[in-house]
Fold this sequence. Notes:
Elements: H1 2-13, E1 21-23, E2 26-28, H2 35-43, H3 52-71, E3 76-78, E4 82-89, E5 92-95, E6 102-105, E7 108-115, H4 117-120
Antiparallel strand pairs: 1-2, 3-4, 4-7, 5-6
Helix pairs in contact: 2-3
Amino acid sequence: MEILYFLNFLKNKMYNFKVKTYKGGRKMEKKVVLLPEIIDKVANNEEIDVPKYKVEQIIKEFLETVKDETKKGNVVKIHKFAKFYVVERDEREGVNPRTGEKIVIPKKKVVRVSLSKSFKEI
């Protein structure tokens, strides 16, 4: 049940604040939110009465579970949030940027994330 509170919190609250930062000499209204900041924000939420260490355990276990399931080839779908799945990229030709020489890039598996429609409409 705690994980549902966390996901709802992410969907409704995390995008509501803006911090002025600089990139390339100009002001931007975006900020990179790191995991410790998310943990603090969830732990300090009055609606969720969960200690900080417990919030950290929940979030880390959630991320680890998503990673483990996608490694197994499973699709992880979280309603009204996102879908995580693995796709296999085919072998393709590329160019070495240093030498200009053509190289073969081997096939590999990569994780894709598809956001749900309700999450995209922020």
